[in-house]
Design brief:
6 strands; two-stranded antiparallel ribbon; two-stranded parallel sheet; mainly alpha; 215 residues
């Protein structure tokens, strides 16, 4: 088993625990039924195939979205390490972090579940990491200069184009291969910052691109 996949399944890891809580508490509508989000998270693979019924992997949920929501851009460095309570941001504790992170991540996924269900670009690890960096700004422990409300986060995300198309994501966190297919296999460390920058600045070149705005 790959190292990062094994860590994703380790219950002593704080980020893993938070991911399981989100999966258990959040309910979404799938195939006309309300089901726990956990049923749509694959715990055994690093990458999904077209035949898999799940919408994302546990590894991506933990190492991309959860960690960056907790730590902001610094969360990327924990992508291959276990996270313990002693690693949490100063002036926080595990209970506070759990309450805030579970609420924010559940809201984000619940509000955009149709995009997750389609396995659109929103499920790409680098995009999820960028989303987590944005969500971090709505936490109670975010640096005062960067803090924003969750409502502001929603406004920033309102016009994104989540389709897996080169016009929106090529050069942001994906590239076009020789077959013309868009490839999101680039690392979170390389692309999360670009995604976050595009999310935060709708008037930048990359921000306009992922909104489908014309130059």
């Amino acid at each position: 088993m790959a190292k990062n996949l094994a860590m994703s399944m380790g219950q002593r890891d704080l980020a893993t625990r938070l991911s399981h809580i989100v999966g258990e508490k959040l309910e979404v509508e799938s195939d006309g039924q309300r089901v726990p989000f956990a049923k749509l998270v694959n715990v055994g693979k690093r990458q999904l195939t077209r035949t898999d019924k799940e919408v994302l992997t546990l590894s991506a949920l933990i190492r991309a979205l959860i960690l960056t929501t907790v730590f902001g851009s610094k969360g990327v460095k924990y992508s291959a390490a276990n996270v313990h309570e002693g690693d949490l941001p100063s002036h926080t504790d595990a209970d506070e972090v759990e309450t805030v992170v579970v609420r924010l991540v559940s809201r984000l996924i619940g509000n955009r579940f149709p995009d997750f269900a389609r396995r659109s670009a929103i499920t790409a690890p680098a995009v999820m990491a960028g989303l987590g960096i944005l969500l971090h700004r709505a936490t109670l422990w975010c640096a005062p200069v960067d803090v924003m409300s969750y409502e502001r986060v929603e406004r920033l995300l309102a016009d994104f184009r989540w389709e897996r198309e080169p016009a929106y994501w090529d050069g942001v966190c994906a590239s076009v291969g020789s077959t013309g297919r868009l490839n999101f296999s680039g690392g979170v460390k390389d692309s999360a910052g670009r995604v976050a920058g595009a999310l935060l600045d709708p008037h930048s070149e990359l921000g306009r691109r992922i909104r489908g705005a014309r130059s």
